[in-house]
Amino acid sequence: MANKNIIAIDGPAGAGKGTLTKRLCDYYGFAGLDTGSLYRAITLCMIEKKHDMDNINLEFAINLTRELSDTHKILDYARNPQIRSQLTNKYVASVAKIPEIRAIMREYQISFGENPPALEDGRPAKGAIIEGRDIGTVICPNAPIKFFITASPETRASRRLKQYLDQGESASYQEVLASIIARDEADRTRATSPMKQADDAILIDTSLNNKEETFQFAKRIIDEKLKITLV
Ligand code: CDP
After folding, report:
1. d(CA 30, CA 23)
2. What percentage of the chain exceeds 90 in pLDDT?
3. Which of 11, 31, 48, 86 has the most C-beta neighbours closer than 10 Å?
4. Per the confidence metrics, is the pTM higher than 0.90?
């Protein structure tokens, strides 16, 4: 039977979706899917193939996405730390706005939600958490729980700057802030599946809550709505 324990988490860059998803997955024994890493994987592969990213060839991009998805190589790319480089950041929104690419990725995400893979330790997953920009609105509109995670652009830029410095990349706060604002704008205003809070999503502002408070808040809602037995 298709899995019904689906939690959709959406929100802009650097809001803390990944941190919350990991914590919830560990706690409840759910499988997590970071859908941004899929769009990043396609972008990285195009960059590696020396494609002209300022003039994306649609046919090339679609064929490559299909191949990466059919062969599951997309998952290898998604594990490459280079998906988080500033160069990938610069181009990922232009790749993610292509409707045909989103259509291929949609199938992948729906199937993950309905049939989540086993956990790393081999236990079957008790549910799925899918995080991105359009999960509550387009990919899983019937998810029983939806969160929209946000934070001020300044808070998100400071967190992202720290991540760059930790991974050995040099960057300035102003550059990172400008890039976050530009990507938010591109994600919010694109024609296909723009980033949007679903009407029934619960808003969490992580500039006002620390990681533990955010987790506890989400946990209270999940415990009320889903019946999950912890072992
Ligand atoms: O990690 P960060 O919060 O910076 O972003 P991400 O979740 O890795 O997503 C990177 C980019 O992929 C976003 O800026 C979007 O352009 C795109 N994306 C999308 O269009 N739809 C999704 N469901 C997830 C990501």
Report:
1. 10
2. 90
3. 11
4. yes
pLDDT in tens, 125-177: 999 999 999 999 999 999 999 999 999 999 999 999 998 898 888 899 999 99
Q: Is the pLDDT of residue 231 over 70?
A: no
Locate the DSSP E strands across 95-159.
Answer: 128-132, 145-150
Between the CA of 230 and the centroid of ligand 1 the distance, in Å, is 31
Nearest to 130 by CA among 221, 15, 25: 25
CATH number 3.90.230.10 is the correct assignment for the domain at 6-222: no
pLDDT digits (tens, 9 = 90+) for 193-229: 999 999 999 999 999 889 999 999 999 999 999 988 7
- CB-based contact 128:116 (threshold 8 Å): yes
User: Which atom of ligand 1 is nearest to 12's Cα?
Assistant: 3
Nearest-CA residue for ligand 1 atom 6 is 36
For residue 133, how far is its CA from the centre of ligand 1 (angstroms)? 6
CA–centroid distance, 137 to ligand 1, in Å, is 15
Task: Give CA–CA dist 45/76, Å, rounded.
Answer: 10
Burial-class residue 39 by CB neighbours within 10 Å (0-12, 13-18, 19+).
buried
105 CB less than 6 Å from ligand 1? no
Both structure tokens of 10: 């959406």
Distance 98 CA to ligand 1 centre (A): 13
Q: Distances in Å between the alpha carbon of 76 and those of 62, 72, 112, 128?
A: 18, 8, 16, 20
Let me know the angle formed at the C-alpha of 82 by 76 and 88, rounded to the nearest 5 degrees. Answer: 110
